[in-house]
Amino acid sequence: MSYEPPTPPANLPTEINSSLNESTPERLREVATYAEALAEHKEREARLEESAAQEEVEERPDDLPDDVPTKATITIKEINDNRYYYWQWREGDKVTSKYKGPVNPDE
Question: Where are the domains of the chain?
C-alpha cells in the first residue's frame, strides 16, 4: 500500500474532489457504498428502458392500432349471436377493450 494519496479521476469536478478530501474515512466509505449502489441502479434502469424499447419495436403486431398497447391480447366476444375480435388490456384494475373486427369477415 502506497503512502501517497490516490489520484482522482481526471473528469471529477473540483468541488466533489475537495469535498471528498475533507471527509472522514467513515464518510468516504458511506459515499463509496452509496455511489456503487447508485451506479448499479442507474445501469439497471438503463437496461430496463432499452429492453422495453426493443420489445415494443420487435413485438408490435402490424395490425395493432397506435392507441393500443403492445401488451394487449385479442379476445372474442359474442354479441347477438355474432362473434367479434377485440383488443383487450389491463390498466390498473380496469380492463380496456377496443373493437378489432368480426370473426367472420363476411358479416
Answer: 9-59, 62-107
